[in-house]
Amino acid sequence: MSSDISFFLSRLSADGVEISKEKAIQMYCGLSTAGITYEEIATQMSLSNLNTSFIHWHNYLHGCSVDRVHGIWGKMVKDAEYLYKVCNM
């Protein structure tokens, strides 16, 4: 489920369309019959984003503009902050 939303958001982003991750998750939860919560999906997405960013940092950001690196770094920080909050840290 989180992978569906992540793929959807990344494809739209690649085409220049930005949709709020929070809004996409809320819409998905509202339409889903699986009973998964917003927090479960958001946590899965944050963990996946951090994992992928750390593993592939050099491969997909090598030679990118400073703005691109800052943007990815900002997303990583936001995901980490969310996970700390969810884990009550």
Keywords:
mainly alpha; 89 residues
Description of the molecule:
The protein is mainly alpha-helical and 89 residues long. 78% of the residues lie in helices and 0% in strands. It is built from four helices and no strands. Helix 1 packs across helix 2 and helix 3 runs antiparallel to helix 4. The longest helix is centred in the middle third of the chain and has 24 residues. It is globular, with a radius of gyration of 14 Å. It starts with a helix and ends with a helix.
Short description:
The protein is mainly alpha-helical. It has helices spanning 2-14, 21-31, 38-61, 66-86.
Secondary structure elements and pairings:
Elements: H1 2-14, H2 21-31, H3 38-61, H4 66-86
Cα-atom radius of gyration: 14 Å
N to C succession of SSEs: HHHH
| Shape category | globular
**What low-confidence regions span 5 or more consecutive residues with pLDDT below 50?**
none
The pLDDT mean sits at 81
Q: Structural class, from secondary structure content?
A: mainly alpha
Helix content: over 70%
Q: Count of helices? A: 4
Measured distance between first and last alpha carbons: 26 Å
Number of DSSP E strands: 0
Q: Biggest sheet, in brief?
A: none
**Share in β-strands:** under 5%
